[in-house]
Design brief:
The complex is a heterotrimer. By secondary structure, chain B is α+β, with helices and mostly antiparallel strands. Chain B has 8 helices and 4 strands. Chain B has a 4-stranded mixed beta sheet with strand order 2-1-3-4, with helices on one face. Classes of the chains: A alpha/beta, B alpha+beta, C alpha/beta. The structure holds flavin mononucleotide, iron/sulfur cluster (SF4) (3 copies) and FE2/S2 (inorganic) cluster (2 copies).
Chain lengths: ~425, ~170, ~775
């Protein structure tokens, strides 16, 4: 494997590395260096230089976000790690934590230092109880080693880190809903502004970042911003990325590969082609909320900007492949069903609009659709997209947009033949 | 302790657990942040969260039952109705769906003789549809008590069920 | 003050206004659901979408969330906005049942209006609808959850705004449910507000179920008659029956909501025992005959026995017009000036508020905006419920609420309550060194907008003057320290404004034996004066008792001559509320026997009469005009009154349902700085407080409220009970200056030490709040009378 392995460097099948193994490959060196030699501003500057973009799906430049943070404000401030990871097709954070939990722990301490937050929370989904246990153990180890607690490594910096388990619901991944969840109130997203950086957890300045985003920080500190930028294959991108493969690939594993890798390489080299010798028809390039790519996109580079150019999104880089026997109406129905069921119930376009879309897709999939239903589908897409309270319904429109962009003929076939062309 | 026994009338939490929650609630500035922890602990011991569990949580955290209920009913992994000893969450999201998730779900229904939302007569199994379980590379997958199983072949279902039955009678 | 263009019209709005507000200013009503003026915007329904062409954020935007900007260009009627709002209409109707024909909300349903406004007209969704089971929420509010459109207004009203703790939102996605944890009566004293707040027929007034269609209902703006705050209400009635009350809007007073006492306390108007005919010693008379008889008798008595022979008694339930005309009639008759209250101490406290405090009165709006509110001798839920909600708004904005009161104060917000006995209260107010008053002074001096809330019942005239002293001392050039006094009734302030400084006491007058005829106008001293029993005895000196009332009071049964008057909802009139706001009310229904009653549940009888049965009651002011032989209408009366009493606001500047105005300041009266009685050795201080429901007479006669009537108990601090060897729950005897009563003892550590607390209400009418400080003994066991 030619890609340098940062996040997965300690990963062995079926094993979990704890503090000894982690330190053996250079773990906590970044933290020690930084606490000794760097100021919080310098770290924030380095992260900005590195071009790191959030790995939680939205791809917001991390350094930029951190520079908005009122790190000098008096009183409690929080750093929250988002390990909700409930978007179908996305499982990279789970793999990372199962292999090497200290990656995140060190990243949290470093990030907290950079942001001058005194308390950190790792918000982790219900299904990742195993990973939560590993994290608890890793945190205890880090505490014992003096990396967490009061006056860390003599730097005068104090930091406490807690693991907070969830109880299932995709919306908790949305950062403001997550904060409500942490506070123990109903996890509907919050109205923005104010943004979490001003009024976040318990009304205090808060930064929320993805697991993988934070796990990258120690590597940026030890390797340097320029080195990190150069890891990516496309200009303007930086770093490596965890690609979780799923669906109809022959190999459905998670790989650490450069940002900007072309889709073809994923499909042919890492995914090992499509199962049963079938043909690649389409994929979700970055989780359930990203518009489909098709065979014509084989040479598109997988990075934030390139995918935006083809009306899709990099998302979480969880690539779900579909073979040529897949009914894309049914696949989209499945995806919309997920979003409709996971709606938090706050705003009308999502709570009710997605139910409408689900019914339309179901009707068409059942062979009972009419041309009016197709028109209604387009009309729902137009009116839901961009108009919901949070990005959940927006995300739901990803696959619907992909369906209408690339597979409208398939819908027409359903309508014209009165049945699903793929169903035997 | 006498007072604490009173607040947990039907023994939903271990004594030490309860004491620890109460202590922790006293320490925290916002005890409410523990609501999911307490509900999950009750569910772990009792299998689900009965009304008494909601009320106990409210008492521990110093909030009202409705404030607990507002949260408890939001999450789908908190059960406010009785479930079997082994609630089986069958993933029906896209990766599992594309890898035979529907057939797997049918197999479970056939084997157990129940449909989604039902519990077997012996009180052992409840079938529940679930969104993505975070093991999309091992599709199709199911989760039982926070343990993940996947990829599951149709033939694996009988064996899994039998193993759980044996576990239950042991 | 940005100027923006909406649909090609320019409008200038205040800073911080939203585009939705700005459009409204132009008369463009953008459809909306989740936005509510009192609750603010939350952006959940998405109905209020408009297109912003020029502005910081362009495109389709929610007008309730976007702040108006200078130079902004917005359209509400462009295709994009119109189409989107139609989709929102469609989404919200997805699950809605076809209920309109049987839904009580029909006709006043925002969902009906907004769905039409949104342009959604034809159902296209053919999938399953979500359905819910309903909860029984008690006798006030009916729930039909299937009609819900998830605007979250109910929970934001009940919980966030009013501070109720037994209502919430459960579940998620398209299955959210708004209700209680478990079925059962809603506990909040403001529960009925969800009826007004809910834009659909989910929450409707159970007491009004299936009574009227909105378009058949007669409504008019009114003023709540149940406490001194004078909240804006809109009663509705039909066919002689007052069927419901909903909240009016007065941003200076209640804002947008009212309390349950105000909302459900209206059925006194239809009380089955209400007397609707003039009766003279049991014989029915026409109104004209009754009045002639009264006039002749009164004149005869005065002629024979002098000006003391006839005593006129006004009240704080009677309108300003009635009380004033009573004064005119007395002058005309040549008898002594009427007493405008049977309750001397309450009346004196009201006069302090109306005169001595008149230059530093705070409205309820000021209370909501305050950053420090100190309450002296006030239990808001008992005496002025909407004050509690106002305090909550202050607290939500960070204000500190401090309460010094002997009662166990419950408030829907954080409160620093120091149980303080009445004697301690009066003493601390004039102390230099008492630690609490030192602390209060310190905090007041730092507050930016302090308000002192002073309870007239507990503090009396003397106490109010002491609070004034504190306010004067705490005012500076930068800001005044204002006072929000709480008084005994809806027009306490009004009758105080009219009253003459020299006052004697009803009982003294009666017991002197010189009064031959007593004319009580809309008051029953048996129930509304502190020594009801003594009054009853004193009545034996009176040969002729005349009662004007709309309530079936005990006194009206004793009356030699009874003349039916109208309830506030049946007449025009005015009250002056506790902070001096002169407010008008308009008639809602005509007085008559409700059709529902004439038919006894069956079809109304087919008798053909030229007048409606039971339509004799007339407004008391109108009856007095007839006695005066004056043909002037209400406008004329008001004009004359405003001229005679220059403090009053010119009535032509006021209208029912408006914000109205405060009467002008007056010179101090400082009449009552007197000695307070000494506490006898070994006694307890007696605290009589209004029950939350059924203390004011209109609510006592309102059947709808009976589920909230509380049983009579005596409350004491457990330490006092222990010292007297009294067990909680046991029967005790309460010995007071006016009699002994057997009660059940409740111990409550939030009752101030040294106090015995009883609630005046339906279950215990014997002691009335607001007397002179008085003392009592409590002992074990039951005493035979
Ligand atoms: C419905 C929804 C679900 C989300 N789920 C996740 C998630 O599981 N993990 C995550 O890191 N971010 C998730 N996000 C994005 C977060 O809101 C937030 O942008 C992210 O945590 C920021 O971290 P990053 O900048 O490091 O990516 C989700 C967003 C939405 C709207
Ligand atoms: S889009 Fe609206 S309903 Fe959907 S999750 Fe976000 S806030 Fe909730
Ligand atoms: S019950 Fe009424 S107020 Fe409450 S959310 Fe539903 S429609 Fe809105
Ligand atoms: S607070 Fe007083 S005036 Fe206002 S509605 Fe209630 S009883 Fe009526
Ligand atoms: S889709 Fe089934 S585990 Fe992710
Ligand atoms: S009124 Fe603006 S979003 Fe509901």
């Amino acid at each position: 494997m030619s890609t340098p392995q940062l996040l997965f460097k300690n990963r062995r099948p079926g094993e979990t590395v704890f503090i000894d193994g982690y330190k053996a490959t250079g773990g906590y060196q970044g933290l020690e260096m930084a606490l000794k030699d760097s100021s919080p501003e310098e770290i924030r500057e380095q992260v900005k230089e590195s071009g790191l973009r959030g790995r939680g799906g939205a791809g917001f430049p991390t350094g930029f976000k951190w520079n908005f943070f009122p790190s000098g404000a008096p009183g409690p401030k929080y750093l929250v790690c988002n390990c909700d990871e409930m978007e179908p097709g996305t499982y990279k954070d789970g793999v990372l934590l199962a292999a090497d939990p200290h990656q995140l722990v060190e990243g949290m301490i470093l990030s907290a230092f950079a942001l001058q937050t005194d308390v950190g929370y790792i918000f982790i989904r219900y299904a990742y109880e195993q990973q939560a246990d590993y994290l608890r153990k890793a945190i205890a180890e880090a505490k014992a080693a003096g990396y967490i607690g009061k006056n860390i490594l003599g730097s005068g910096f104090d930091f406490e880190l807690h693991v907070h388990g969830s109880a299932g619901r995709y919306i908790l991944g949305e950062e403001t809903a997550l904060l409500n969840g942490l506070e123990g109130i109903r996890p509907n997203p919050r109205l923005k502004p104010p943004f979490p950086a001003t009024r976040g957890l318990f009304g205090r300045p808060t930064t929320v970042n993805n697991v993988e985003t934070i796990a990258n920080i120690p590597h940026i500190i030890t390797g340097g911003a320029l080195w990190f930028r150069d890891l990516a294959l496309t200009p303007g991108s930086s770093g490596t990325k965890l690609y979780g493969l799923s669906g109809h690939f022959n190999v459905t594993e998670c790989f650490e590969l450069p940002v900007g890798i072309p889709l073809r390489e994923i499909v042919e080299n890492y995914g090992g082609g499509i199962r049963g010798g079938r043909k690649f028809k389409a994929c979700l390039p970055g989780g359930a909320s990203t518009p489909y790519l098709t065979a014509e996109h084989m040479d598109v580079a997988l990075d934030f900007d390139s995918l935006e150019k083809v009306d899709s999104r990099y998302g979480t880089a969880g690539v779900t492949a579909f073979d040529d026997q897949t009914c894309m109406v049914a696949a989209t129905f499945n995806l919309i069903n997920f979003f409709a069921r996971e709606s938090c119930g706050w705003c009308s376009p999502c709570r009710d609009g997605l139910v409408m879309v689900r019914w339309l897709l179901e009707t068409i999939d059942n062979g009972q659709g009419t041309p009016e239903h197709l028109e209604m589908l387009k009309d729902q897409l137009k009116n839901i997209a961009g108009n919901s309270f949070c990005a959940l319904a927006e995300g739901a429109m990803g696959p619907l947009a992909g369906l209408l962009n690339h597979f409208e003929q398939e819908i027409v076939d359903h309508i014209e033949t009165g049945k699903c062309p793929f169903r035997k | 302790m006498a007072q604490e026994e009173k607040i947990d009338q039907i023994g939903l939490l271990e004594e030490e657990e309860l004491a620890a929650f109460i202590d922790h609630a006293c320490e925290l500035e916002h005890p409410r942040e523990m609501v999911i922890d307490v509900l999950r602990a009750i569910q772990k011991n009792h299998g689900w969260v009965p009304d008494e569990g909601v009320e106990l949580t409210a008492t521990i955290l110093g909030i009202t039952p409705i404030e607990v209920e507002e949260v408890a009913t939001f999450y789908d992994k908190i059960f406010r109705r009785q479930v079997g000893r082994f609630p089986i969450h069958i993933c029906d999201s896209i990766c599992c769906w594309s890898n035979g998730g529907e057939e797997l779900a049918e197999q479970f229904q056939k084997t157990l003789g129940i449909t989604f939302g039902e519990t077997t007569k012996d009180g052992l199994f409840t079938l529940l549809p679930s969104c993505c379980l975070g093991v999309c590379g091992q599709a199709p997958a199911v989760m039982i008590h926070q343990k993940l199983y996947g990829p599951l072949q149709l033939d694996d279902v009988d064996e899994l069920i039998n193993r759980l039955r044996r576990e239950a009678s042991a | 003050m940005p100027t923006l263009t909406i649909d090609n019209q320019q409008v200038t709005v205040t800073d911080g206004s939203t585009v939705l507000d700005a459009a409204e200013q132009l008369g463009i009503i953008i459809p909306h659901f989740c936005y509510h003026k009192a609750l603010g915007p939350v952006g959940s329904c998405r109905m209020c979408a408009v297109t912003v062409h020029e502005g910081t954020f362009k495109g389709l935007k929610m007008s309730c969330l976007v702040k108006a900007e200078e130079g902004m260009v917005v359209t509400t009627d462009d295709q994009q906005s119109v189409e989107f709002r139609a989709r929102v209409g469609e989404w919200l109707m997805l699950n809605h049942p076809h209920d309109c024909p049987v839904c009580d909300e029909g006709g006043e349903c925002q969902l009906q209006e907004m769905t039409i406004a949104s342009g959604h007209g034809i159902r296209r969704y053919g999938g399953k609808k979500r359905t819910h089971n309903n909860q029984q929420l008690g006798s006030f509010v009916a729930q039909e959850m299937n009609r819900c459109i998830q605007c979250y207004r109910c929970v934001r009203t009940y919980k966030d705004y009013c501070g109720g703790s037994d209502f919430g939102v459960m579940g998620s996605r398209n299955r959210v449910f708004f209700g209680r944890y478990k079925e059962g009566p809603l506990e909040s004293d403001f529960s009925g507000n969800i009826i007004d707040a809910c834009p659909t027929g989910v929450f409707t007034d159970k007491t009004y179920r299936f009574k009227s269609r909105y378009w058949d209902l007669q409504e008019a703006p009114s003023v709540c008659p149940h406490c001194s705050l004078g909240c804006a209400t809109i009663p509705g009635g039909r066919y002689g029956e007052l069927q419901r009350v909903r909240s009016g809007v007065n941003e200076k007073v209640n804002g947008f909501f009212i309390c349950d006492r105000g909302r459900f306390g209206s059925s006194y108007v239809n009380h089955p025992d209400r007397r609707r005919q003039v009766r003279s010693d049991g014989q029915p008379l026409t109104v004209g005959d009754g009045l002639s008889k009264l006039d002749a008798q009164a004149r005869e008595l005065i002629e024979e026995h002098g000006p003391e022979a006839v005593l006129l008694l006004g009240s704080n339930r009677a309108s300003l017009e009635t009380n004033w005309l009573l004064q005119r009639w007395a002058a005309e008759l040549g008898c002594r000036a009427p007493l405008l209250s049977a309750h001397l101490q309450r009346h004196q406290a009201a006069q302090v508020a109306a005169f001595d405090l008149s230059d530093r009165l705070a409205s309820l709006e000021k209370v909501r905006q305050s950053d420090l509110v100190v309450l002296f001798g006030v239990d808001p839920l008992a005496e002025a419920p909407m004050l509690a909600v106002a305090l909550r708004q202050a607290a939500r904005n960070g204000a500190l609420i401090m309460v010094y009161d002997p009662r166990p104060i419950e408030l829907p917000c954080e409160v620093d309550h120091q149980p303080t006995s009445p004697a301690q209260l009066l003493a601390m107010l004039v102390s230099d060194c008492e630690p609490e008053i030192v602390r209060i002074r310190e905090m007041l001096s730092e507050a930016e907008m302090p308000v002192l809330v002073a309870g007239g019942d507990l503090l009396g005239a003397e106490g109010l003057l002491r609070v004034k002293q504190l306010a004067v001392e705490q005012s500076n050039e930068k800001r005044p320290c204002l006072i929000h006094p709480i008084l005994g009734g809806p027009n306490s302030f009004g009758s105080a404004v009219l009253s003459l400084p020299e006052q004697d006491d009803l009982l003294t007058r009666l017991e002197s034996g010189r009064t031959k005829m007593l004319i009580c106008v809309e008051t029953d001293p048996l129930l509304e004066a502190p020594e009801g029993e003594r009054f009853g005895t004193a009545l034996s000196h009176v040969d002729n008792l005349v009662v004007f009332d709309y309530l079936p009071t005990p006194l009206s049964v004793h009356a030699n001559l009874f003349i039916p008057s109208t309830a506030p909802a049946e007449s025009a009139g005015s009250f002056i509320n506790n902070e001096g706001r002169q407010q008008l009310f308009a008639p809602v229904t005509n007085p008559r026997l409700p059709i529902a009653e004439t038919g006894a549940g069956n079809h109304p009888p087919r008798e053909f009469l030229s007048t409606a049965p039971g339509s004799d009651p007339q407004p008391a002011w109108q009856l007095l005009q007839q006695l005066l032989g004056d043909m002037g209408d209400l406008e004329t009366v008001r004009q004359q009154m405003a001229t005679a009493v220059p403090r009053l606001v010119d009535f032509t500047n006021l209208q029912p349902g408006g914000v109205c105005c405060r009467v002008t300041d007056a010179d101090e009266r400082s009449l009552y700085a007197g000695d307070l009685p000494e506490q006898p050795e070994g006694s307890l201080q007696l605290v009589v407080t209004p029950a939350r429901y059924g203390s004011d007479l209109p609510s006592r006669f309102s059947a709808k409220l009976t589920p909230r009537f509380a049983p009579a108990v005596l409350q004491m601090n457990p330490k006092d009970a222990a010292a007297l060897k009294l067990a909680a729950g046991s029967k005790v005897s309460l010995d007071t200056e006016v009699g002994s009563f057997n009660l059940i003892l409740n111990c409550n550590k939030d009752v101030a030490a040294g106090c015995a607390l009883v609630e005046n209400g339906a279950a215990f009418p014997h002691l009335v709040p607001g007397g002179l400080p008085s003392f009592c003994q409590v002992s074990a066991g039951v005493r035979d009378d």
